[in-house]
Amino acid sequence: MNKLAVKLRPKTVFLLEKFFTGESFDYKKLFAIITPIFVDQSFLIIMSLLNTAMISSAGVDAVSAVSMVDSLNIFLVNVFIAVATGGTVMVAQYKGSGNPEMVSKTATQAISAVTIFSVLLSALVIIFHTPTLSLLFGKAEAHVFQEARIYLIGSCLSYPLIAIFQAVTGALRGVGETKPCLNLSLIMNVTNTLLNLLFITLFNIGVEGLVISTIIARLIGVVASLIYILKYNESIQFKLRNALHIDVAILKKVMFIGLPFAAEQLFFNGGKLLTQTFIVQLGTLALTSYAIANSIALLFQIGPNSLSIAIVTVVGQCIGKRNVQDARKFIISMIGLGTVLFVIADAVLMPLFPFLVKLFSPPEEIISTIFTLILISSVGHPLLWPTSFIMPSALRAAGDSNFTSIASLLSMWLLRVILGYLLGITFGFGIVGVWAAMNIEWGMRTLIFALRFKGKKWYAHKLV
Q1: What backbone torsions phi and psi does residue 208 show, to the nearest 5 degrees?
Q2: CA-CA distance, 278 to 438, in Å (whole number)?
Q3: Residue 246: exposed, middle, or buried by beta-carbon count in 10 A (0-12, 13-18, 19+)?
Q4: Whole-structure pTM value
Q5: Which of 337, 256, 271, 417 shows the shortest CA–CA distance to 34?
């Protein structure tokens, strides 16, 4: 008997086999995919929280500047991550269909496309960084604006590095090799945190230190990831000479998934970015509250967010085998597991709020506001988040990219942006109103994607 089964009680094994075992995967293989992603996300988010806490030692101006630019970074970086996701979906489906040659070709083409795209995007943003920041955050205080300029230019220099890294790890996740992704992520993120500790905490360099550590860490991550797929990985069989050749037929399939998702990410994160411009109008303290609350809220999302990443591999391979029954079963089970993980996170983390908020050394007058924001999320998370985010990842893995993108865009702009402005600015609820609109948007996404899942159109796309 498998070692995992020996350690588990018979009732636990029964439940795992009932909800997480099918023809395509058994529960042991499924959790072998999920567990490294969970550990990776845990380290990633905890280190992000620690990094934010470290930069807070440089003052609220630094926190606000980093928060502003990170919103823009997320907006831009997610565009080429979206293209990489197209590669992940296609690699997973070819893996499921048993076509190793196309797995290799698709992974290579996705890495090449994302690299070219990120270099162009980086150059464009560096050239127009001042007018971009002026347009979005022109009302920010002068010190905050200057810090934001430094951080944005430094971030742009690292875009191609994080793009290549995401494309490589996305391809590895597509074939189900999540353990190497974990190891590569640990190399990059542990390096980043240690360098932040050195430059920000010890040398007190502030935002410039954050930029230096980010570039060095991402460079190390890229070198490690390329060494791994060139020398140690057999599934992808990546060769540099093949990466220089563009295969239009393969790229069309990758872009069929990637481009709608990229457009979604542009407008979705554009909406979040626009929302942040509302918050700038509310002042630096409101912006700092938003930044800290976001960092803490991510801790609650570690488990469910891991499932939203893992489900792309799982559903992609199920659909590659044309096993819709398994795909349906695993989607429902992982959404249920996401809800359970949120309940556990609420029970564990809410009592720890006083300790968590102290990591950021916020002004005393905004602690109650931060707590209110986290309290709103703790209610919305288990009820609304799993279906609104795990479900679209699953639908996209089945090839239903156009619908998920359009639905996400409409819910974002009609509710999070417009309703957020009305509640936060027009009706005067401030940052709490903006935050509440986000939870309302989760509710609309839950309704839309649940209705889509009940039908048959989401799995009707034949990509391989």
Answers
A1: -60, -40
A2: 14
A3: exposed
A4: 0.79
A5: 337
